[in-house]
């Protein structure tokens, strides 16, 4: 976990992590979690060290992953995916 930048003492046990998802949002939730390795990163190095940040999802990966999950990418699905992406980035930015 430390390799991922996580403090094991701050990560709740699996039985403590409950996520409630409205049925209408379930397909995009599945898609978002399946895209967990498809983030774009920006890195800068300098005299004081380096900076690495996520810049957003790699949207080129969305159609094939969505097709594999049989998620239709209509305008509403793109809107919900963008909302999930923005919320995740807001949380990560607050932690950095």
Largest sheet: 2 strands, antiparallel
Give the rounded overall mean pLDDT.
86
- Written as H for each helix and E for each strand, in order along the chain, the element string is HEEHH
Number of domains: 1
The fraction of residues assigned to DSSP E strands is 15-25%
Please describe the topology of this protein.
Layout: H1 26-34, E1 39-46, E2 49-57, H2 62-69, H3 75-95
Antiparallel strand pairs: 1-2
Describe the structure.
This protein is of the alpha+beta class and 96 residues long. It has one domain (25-95). The protein has helices at 26-34, 62-69, 75-95; strands spanning 39-46, 49-57. It has a two-stranded antiparallel ribbon with strand order 1-2. α1 packs across α2 (62-69). It is globular, with a radius of gyration of 16 Å.
Short description:
The protein is α+β, with helices and mostly antiparallel strands and 96 residues long. It contains three helices and two strands; from the N terminus they run αββαα.
Please supply descriptive tags for the structure shown above.
single chain; alpha+beta; 2 strands; two-stranded antiparallel sheet; 96 residues
């Amino acid at each position: 976990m430390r390799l991922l930048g996580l403090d094991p003492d701050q990560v709740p046990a699996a039985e403590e992590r409950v996520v409630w998802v409205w049925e209408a949002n379930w397909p995009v939730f599945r898609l978002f979690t399946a895209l967990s390795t498809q983030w774009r990163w920006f890195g800068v190095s300098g005299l004081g060290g380096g900076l690495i940040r996520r810049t957003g999802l790699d949207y080129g990966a969305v159609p094939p992953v969505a097709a594999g999950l049989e998620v239709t990418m209509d305008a509403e699905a793109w809107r919900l995916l963008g909302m999930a992406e923005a919320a995740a980035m807001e949380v990560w930015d607050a932690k950095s």
